[in-house]
Amino acid sequence: MNDSSHTPGALPPTAGGIDRTNVYEPELGSLPDGGDRDDAAVSKTGTTTVGLTTEAGVVIATDRRASLAGRFVSNKNVTKVEQVHPTAALTLVGSVGGAQSFVRNLRAETNLYGARRGEPMSVSALATLAGNFARGGPFFAINPILGGVDEEGHHVFTIDPAGGIMEDEYSVTGSGMQLAYGVLEREYEEGLSNEDATEVAARAVKSAVERDTGSGNGVVFAEITEAGVDVHRHSDFADVL
Question: 46-239, what's its fold?
Answer without folding.
Answer: Glutamine Phosphoribosylpyrophosphate, subunit 1, domain 1 (3.60.20)
